[in-house]
Amino acid sequence: PSRPRPSWSTPQSFFEQKAMYDRAVLLYRKGGALGRAIELCFRANLRDSLQQIADDLTPDADPSLLAQCAEFFASTQRFDKAVKLLVSAKEYAKALDVCHAHEVQVTEAMVKMITEDKALEAARRSDVLIKLGAVLRDQGSYYLSARVFTEGGDKVQAINSLIASGDTEKVVQLATMCRTAEIYIITANYLQRLEWRSKPDILKRIIEFYQKAKAWDALVAFFEACAQVEIDEYLEYEKALGALREAFKYLSKGAKAAEADASSPKLAGDPAQRLAQLQAKIMVVEKFVQARKMAKGDPAQMVRICTELLDDPSSELALRTGDVYALLVQHYHAQAKH
């Protein structure tokens, strides 16, 4: 008796049974059975065929097919292709994880696709945008990162991205736009690290932002630091005196605000004690400024004031005693010449 002829349901299954996988995949593709074609590519490790399928896939293809191809490319270290397919599959978080882990550059096209996907549920969209902003920042795309963080609702990370860029003008613009105490304080803290002494506009912004945030302690600390810089680096006791008076003014303002309004930020420590200590500093510096002015017109009075300052141990908290001695030495040296 003759043997029965084998029955093949389709040409694809014939080639598959004969282990002629590349031909089977080609026929599955032509027949629109991409899922089966991809499955066969995986099983037979047909990289070239899978590459062709992936190239043919459009962003509106079945997300599961896109994800399958992405998985294959990730397993073969072709991370850029995996990211592209994951984004098309709307697997944004996974795509960004791959970018972060394998240093795949996030392109503007990817950013556009993710940010313009309005179908994302609000909470998930915010999470994705925050993750996108973080990856962009880590890759040095600070402006883009700031924009994405802002869109995701994280203004703190947005301002920090701009600070990392070093673009002071844009930092100030965003702070002005955000109008929140936290952002004002972060910005003012950043501006303090710049050359504010030689740039009045920056100094003005520091004061403005701390004032708007009602960050009285920060403002007082800033002016006290200004006074110390003027003394230590420039011997500018008159400018230091002006800074100390500003510190006293804002400490008083903060104390009154806290007393009048329970919701106003509380000052650190005992405001009355701090005001007394600051007033004592001001008086010491005032005396020394006065003594320097009298060096030529009334040297005897200058010597008397300097002696008083040197006899008072608390003077060291407001000025450098070495500067007082230097003033006396100059005086006695000038006398010795005559």
Could you describe the 3D structure shown?
It contains 19 helices and no strands. By secondary structure, the chain is mainly α. Helix 2 runs antiparallel to helix 3 (34-44) and helix 16 (237-260) packs antiparallel against helix 17. The N and C termini lie far apart (142 Å).
* Average pLDDT over all residues: 89
Query: Which regions are unreliable across 5 or more consecutive residues at pLDDT < 50?
Result: 1-9
Structural class: mainly alpha
Number of DSSP helical runs: 19
Major sheet summary line: none
SSE string, helix = H, strand = E? HHHHHHHHHHHHHHHHHHH
Radius of gyration: 36 Å
The total count of strands amounts to 0
- Broad shape: elongated
Keywords:
338 residues, mainly alpha, 0% strand, elongated, disordered N terminus, single chain, 75% helix
Quick overview of this protein structure:
With 338 residues, the chain is mainly alpha-helical. The protein has helices at residues 11-17, 21-30, 34-44, 47-56, 63-75, 79-88, 92-102, 108-115, 122-138, 142-151, 155-165, 168-178, 181-192, 200-212, 216-234, 237-260, 271-297, 299-311, 321-337.
Write the SSE topology.
Layout (H helix, E strand, L loop, with lengths): L10 H7 L3 H10 L3 H11 L2 H10 L6 H13 L3 H10 L3 H11 L5 H8 L6 H17 L3 H10 L3 H11 L2 H11 L2 H12 L7 H13 L3 H19 L2 H24 L10 H27 L1 H13 L9 H17 L1
